[in-house]
Amino acid sequence: MKRNILIIVILLCVDQALKLYIKTHFMLGEQTAVFGNWFYLHFTENNGMAFGMELEGTAGKLLLSTFRILAIVGLGYYLYHLVQKNASRLHQTSVALVFAGALGNILDSTFYGWMFSDSYGKVAQLFPEQGYAPMLFGKVVDMLYFPMWQGVFPSWFPIWGGEPFEFFRPVFNIADTCISTGVGLMVVFQNRFFGETKTTDPTSKETNKIQ
To answer: Does the annotation mark 176 as catalytic?
Structure first.
């Protein structure tokens, strides 16, 4: 369990440190090149889920924040269950990644609204007299932008023919990466993870021998 906690703490600290840096050094929409023209820090915010997806309206935002909190509780219990049943390290790591990512984004949604002033046309102020939103209504900070290839769909291409194309368009954060990586591991190794039959019962092996 200590290993899982260490993974979560490290990833959470890296995620929040980068978000705090962006929030206190960039105006909304500002960007700077990191490597050439394929990796930028581009400051944007969203009300919702990974990669800029969101639920509309105040009710949608409150529902999403509530769901995230419940999901974190559920993930925490599931990770504890995996440790108790001695599940594989890779399985535990995948859940720890999702937990760290979900917690990282819910911290934004829960606290950033009252921790910061808005970032429109100026760099946000930390702990202003009044934040830009009440508790649970803050926005998630995104900054990782990888426009590796840009072009135009050929005219014969269905639906998008002749329209501009960019890979990779979404702007995301470390927490999103943790969630995507954890879920990806679960999908790739689902037969191994969910077929685990490890047990701590010492009589099980003896029973199998007798049979």
So the answer is: yes
